[in-house]
Amino acid sequence: MEHKELFIYNSFTRSKEKFTPIDPDRIGMYVCGPTVYSDVHLGNCRTFISFDIIYRYLMHLGYKVRYVRNITDVGHLENDVDTGGEDKVAKKARLEQLEPMEIVQRYTNGFHDVLKQFNTLNPSIEPTATGHIIEQIEMVQQILDNGFAYEKNGSVYFDTQKLNATSDIYGTLSGKVQDDLLTETRDDLKNQSEKNHPSDFAIWVKAEPKHIMKWESPWSLGFPGWHLECSAMSTKYLGKTFDIHGGGMDLQFPHHENEIAQNMGACNCAPVNYWMHANMLLMNGRKMSKSPDPITGLSNSISPEELFEGTSPHMSKPYSPMIVRFFMLQTHYHSTLDLSDKALLAAEKGYHRLMDANRVLTDLAYGGNDQSSEEDVEINKLLDQAYEDMSNDFNCPQALSRLFMVATKINAIKNGQLDFNLVSRTTWERMQTTFHNFIFEIFGLKDDSHGGGNGANGEVLDGLMKLLIDIRQDVRAKKDFETSDKIRDTLKELNVILKDGKDGTDWSIG
Amino acid sequence: MEHKELFIYNSFTRSKEKFTPIDPDRIGMYVCGPTVYSDVHLGNCRTFISFDIIYRYLMHLGYKVRYVRNITDVGHLENDVDTGGEDKVAKKARLEQLEPMEIVQRYTNGFHDVLKQFNTLNPSIEPTATGHIIEQIEMVQQILDNGFAYEKNGSVYFDTQKLNATSDIYGTLSGKVQDDLLTETRDDLKNQSEKNHPSDFAIWVKAEPKHIMKWESPWSLGFPGWHLECSAMSTKYLGKTFDIHGGGMDLQFPHHENEIAQNMGACNCAPVNYWMHANMLLMNGRKMSKSPDPITGLSNSISPEELFEGTSPHMSKPYSPMIVRFFMLQTHYHSTLDLSDKALLAAEKGYHRLMDANRVLTDLAYGGNDQSSEEDVEINKLLDQAYEDMSNDFNCPQALSRLFMVATKINAIKNGQLDFNLVSRTTWERMQTTFHNFIFEIFGLKDDSHGGGNGANGEVLDGLMKLLIDIRQDVRAKKDFETSDKIRDTLKELNVILKDGKDGTDWSIG
Fold this sequence. Notes:
2 copies of one chain form a homodimer. Chain A is of the alpha/beta class and 510 residues long. The first copy, chain A, has helices at residues 42-60, 88-96, 100-117, 133-145, 160-166, 178-184, 189-192, 226-238, 252-267, 304-309, 321-329, 341-363, 374-391, 396-414, 425-442, 456-477, 481-493, and strands at residues 7-10, 15-18, 26-31, 64-69, 149-152, 155-158, 201-206, 222-224, 242-248, 272-278, 281-283, 286-287, 289-292, 299-300, 337-339, 496-501, 504-509. The first copy, chain A, is elongated.
């Protein structure tokens, strides 16, 4: 497929821009990954699923994409500023009496398992912060050599005032002016005196004696500041300036703002051409939070596992990973998304409607007379529009609405309400290809309503269901209602739904 | 469970020894992982499955085990000696025109996917060589400081003659005497002159200008020798001396021999108390090899995927990961294991027999009168022996044979050939627990004959099969043979097997 014209909302310029990659055929994309000190948050999953769809669509457009998503396994402090906070991984290790790398391994595995359930593709490279200490030390040295940092008692601080004297870039991404920066940069007392200016930030931190994750450097036995890893690793794997940098909206400040500062200091260039931010996930209209509500005693929070297993008091039933993924598609990545039982119930219906329509498209033989018509033109327009929506800042909900309009046509054809002769063979085949591409390749959904994705067992399940549907018809014809009732009742117990249609009976789970 | 007395065959002393861990409750175990430059070899899978069972059994005995298994992503040279060979990962990256870390990511993911299919547990820590360059540089420095290495033109070599002058450890593990070492250490011409002695080996390698994976060090812009990573990472995560070091038999020399040398040089102590080596996997009696046979044109080689999908000309059908895992259990880890279609067919039967017996044990209510008997004593002895076998250098095949003897009793009870009254309730319950522990916890098998391990779909599958077995009985009673024949024929097509027994009909796939 030739590269379609693509528009991306750039958080840096706050405007939708035509996308022009540095290399016409290759794209470099960096997305900030998780800090692996606890189970992955569902809100983070939303971010990674959003960028998974962006990654899939860029590849679908024919680009070769190098997609780098890091694992933060050191340096992310509890209080996010300078040396006052405790390292999140090290703290968890202390509490659980484990080696920090055991904590890292456990939660990295858990993170991968959850994303696999959501059917996200693996990034091309998944570098870790501890795996790039040398590169980070080198970058600190470059920033020092260029005069954009200073050392105090073994720690090294980025000199934001020096950057401000030569450029007005600092604060642009987050839209914060210097006064805001002053106010928002909470200072811990201990290190206030070390910094020349409150908005300066640590890029190398001298370790306290009790600190366990530390490495030799020219300045001290210490560890890198959290923001540094992304600058060092994006530069190593994507170059000094690359195409797309993504992450959750909450990372704009200070994390991404400071990444830009570090790259300016080390390389004297802005690192990223297009900054993209996925918005927050809410639940029942409010920010997710683990603290219990004073009245209900319930926390406004849910884990992926609770969602899949239906064990949360907020949900009436379990929702499969594909239904949750579909639910996320229904809102643009740049808007907040509100999770609720009601919204998931609706998403479940929508998911099955889409999958059912796709199955009809796949199974139904073309039954028209290969003539064109106004219907034909209308369907083609909808398919074109779905692509235009995706190329318009990855507007999934809009593209989805086009597919649903086509799905209505498909069902009408199946049920004989729309004349098959009004749709040409070319259009029918284009519908098949486009549905397949959107559902499986771009949206990254799997059809689990038929027990799909389980290889051999999926086939057995399908075979057994065909057999049962067949027997049900036979015994009805023989007026053996005892047996046909038994089939009906047992399937109901097993949550298998039969749907009688013009071309026979179809089925789905749940 | 209190720690049972355990005996381990120690490759270093060539004798079976009573196992005494350094800490009475905790065990440190290091296993050499894969070099991630190609799809994982089935022979490597055997090694990792062997150590998975060892890991599981140690935990079953009540130990806390820190299990470290590394990923080699740099430094493993094509010719294994000094600087003449090309780095395996870098070579693959050159051939595929990718960043080396993209190669690393792709094959690390593939490795994890295959091991997940084999149901191996994740290690506690899975460190990478590139993630520990600093630790490796520090170890080179220690070895230099202690006088066991010398620098030549930016590369650093381990001084085996210096070690030989102070200790007779070098050569003990592999049983090679100095003359052998001289003969077996193929020297590349370029670096011969740099080494003081042919058996010396590189621990830091100065990179050629074209080399892409390189780091700054006190000696040169270069990369660590392959053997170094395991010394540095085992020391970091398990201490200077730890309990168990495992790997494939082919790693004894030079890899493990050189690890010992490096640790002696850096810390002046032997790193490992118990060296364990898993033996090779053969196919059809011969070493696996990718080069085609001159007569048949077939290579004597098979990948895990070909095995699972049944696409190899060497196999008559696909074998599920659990059948392959069961097959591997049937041979002691210290013996060579010969893969063949015939052996896998037999393993398939054995696997189903074991799973069927376990299902009978789980489903059948105790039907005796709680008296003891000679049968009772015999069964308890077999269960004791299964544990003794495992504690005797992890003798899985022997333990398995005890379980099969118990399985015969279970089937006899089910079929009414053995009086249930001869087995006491305590023994019946002990049989249930022991079978469950061995099959699922220690051997790490899953019951996939009932479509198990697929969560919700497994339940649906089970429900549909119960319904069909029920309908089959009903329609037979009504003399509706058309329907009962249809059920029989369709199940046969789907490869679902019905087994009529005393307590009704059971089923399995395959």
